[in-house]
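User: SDR family oxidoreductase, Xanthobacter dioxanivorans:
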Amino acid sequence: MSATRMLDGKVVVVTGAGGGIGRDIALSAAAHGAMVVVNDIGAGLDGKGQDEGPAACVVQEIRSAGGEAVASLDSVADAEGAGRIVQVARDAFGRLDGIVNNAGILRDAFFHKMSDEEWDKVLKVHLYGSFNISRAAAPLFKEQQSGSLVHMTSTSGLIGNRAQANYSAAKLGIVGLSKSIALDMERFGVRSNCIAPFAWSRMISSIKVDTPEQEARVARLQQMTPAKVAPLAVYLLSDRASDVSGQIFSVRNNEIFLFSQPRPVRSVQRDDGWTPERIADHAMPALAASFHRLDVSSDVFTWDPV
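Assistant: Predicted structure for SDR family oxidoreductase:
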């Protein structure tokens, strides 16, 4: 176990913790003193099926290293299931101090070809799931006047990627959710932050690779391990981050980024108001220099990870 115990005495739920980023966060949280609820339904990347094996294996890893952990197989996409995940923490350890909303699935498709099911399933797990478990924990956090929520967002939502309308919408929605939680729960000592992780995982391995640009993006991701994301998550769960809330971070190998948040960048004004023609002739030409390009994530992160 680590000599640095930033989470001693704390109880943490990590969703989607049976593998990838969630597993590394669960292991790191336990190594830093937390009692961990390892939540994972053990489903395939399409969200189908259920297997207790992944969560049980991570629990065993934590216990073998001298930590404390229990498994949870409930789905965050179901509000009642999210309530049971929170109850597992209370039953096993008597309290709950932090949640990492990491569970996710992918159903990639171009927007104009995306089915209702592909849209619904991804939003249910990512966005609804983050809302469900955060809301289930809110009364406990309010009562104890403390708590930390760490949500996994993505540059697919913050910047953009092709063939991921469902995933991008969910991940950007999580940013809005996190900010609202931070604002609404601030007076109760509850914090909420986002991490956009760059890391190779089972879920990311299903990304469509049908262009040289996508091949280059995947090649870069394969160099980045989930373990690189865990330290920031542990920090945000700890009391050392008591003044950090409503922020969007990213981890890219050994780099940590703080993301900007939408604010006005330029304005135009006419005392006598605007007509569509005036907008076309004057407003848009004046604003065009500040337009954002149709970037994808790889257009922004063009350098190799260090």
